[in-house]
Amino acid sequence: MVAKISSSITELIGNTPLLRLSRYAQQHEIQAELIAKLELFNPNHSVKDRIALSMIEAAERNGIIQPGDTLVETTSGNTGIGLAAIAAAKGYKFRVYINDFVSIERTQLIQAFGAQVVPFSTIEGFKEFYDASNGDFVAATKWLAEQVTAAEPDVHFLLQLDNPANPAVHVQTTGPEIWRDSGGELDIFIAAVGTGGTLSGTGRYLKQQHPGLQVIAVEPGVGSQPSELRPEPLEITGVHAFSNQPPERIPANLDHRVYDEVIAVETWQAYAAARQLALSEGVLVGDSSGAVLWAAEQVAARPENHGKRIVVLLADGGSSYLSTQLFAHQVPAETFKLANAIQTSQKIA
């Protein structure tokens, strides 16, 4: 008998399962085959474990970081959790700049790995800049890299938005895993866009194998994006708008040549789908995964897609959202749609 014992958490990342969502499809009368790539089976329960490892190891190979250095990133949570865990396993310090509105579980998880958490509101001059940019995550990252860390010695900002190690790991792992485990049989691939790395890398690999594959990108709807009238809407965590945006607001890692269509999803729709998945399949996922599920349901309803196989990438688990309203089944998901509408009308008044 050959022992199979891993030596590091880094060896446990990837090879997440595919799950046929039979009950969800049945209850929603979906006439396509709906398959989920469950990234919650990564050690820290999200797809971001993949890029965390990839970016750190690329920096090591390139001689950019040395033992004792501090790694830095700005994130809505999952990348920070993955980086904190892997930095701990490799002996690096880690600091994360994070939005004040992320769930308390995310902050606690990062701190549990010994990392430093710096809320946006505590950074001098940052809130004014962030508000003026209508919550532009790309601009926020650039500002932080230039203003906060540039003068610090032994600090390396990983810059997930334009770090090529981000999409590269999905070309190397996520795409091949889906192709292998689906037996090379899929018609449509759907993923949400945050940094753009997951969609771009996975979609690129799958299209190389199957040029006729349709790749669909998911972004937040207008009602779920910060604006002058609605600066603090209930957003879909980690999902950012990229269509009809100026070039400087679009992550460099988003490859526009990969996707064929963009579907906008509102937060209340993402909440509704995530809740329904928990009730029908016993699987807890985050709101970005709910957004992908909602989009898949719309795509599957098209007559031309009946009988096709749709693979959706569900980016993270739902356990870090329990302090939010995501799984508050007693509160109808449509309530959040109404709340945003009221907030907008109040701003106008």
Automatic annotation (TrEMBL):
Q: Name one Pfam family in it.
A: PALP
Pathway field of the UniProt record reads:
Amino-acid biosynthesis; L-cysteine biosynthesis; L-cysteine from L-serine: step 2/2
Superkingdom of origin: Bacteria
Show the stretches that span the lipid bilayer: none
Against Gene3D superfamilies, the record matches this protein to:
3.40.50.1100
Return the broad EC class. transferase
**Which reaction does this chain catalyze?**
O-acetyl-L-serine + hydrogen sulfide = L-cysteine + acetate
Listed GO MF terms = cysteine synthase activity
What's the cofactor? pyridoxal 5'-phosphate
Q: What InterPro entries does the entry give? A: Cys_Synth/Cystath_Beta-Synth (IPR050214), TrpB-like_PALP (IPR001926), TrpB-like_PALP_sf (IPR036052)
Q: Which EC numbers does the record give?
A: 2.5.1.47
What does the UniProt keyword field contain? Amino-acid biosynthesis, Cysteine biosynthesis, Pyridoxal phosphate, Transferase
- SUPFAM superfamilies reported for this sequence: Tryptophan synthase beta subunit-like PLP-dependent enzymes
Domain Tryptophan synthase beta chain-like PALP: start-end pairs = 9-316
Give the record's family classification: Belongs to the cysteine synthase/cystathionine beta-synthase family.
Q: What is this protein called?
A: cysteine synthase
Report the source organism. Answer: Pantoea rodasii
Organism taxonomic ancestry: Bacteria, Pseudomonadati, Pseudomonadota, Gammaproteobacteria, Enterobacterales
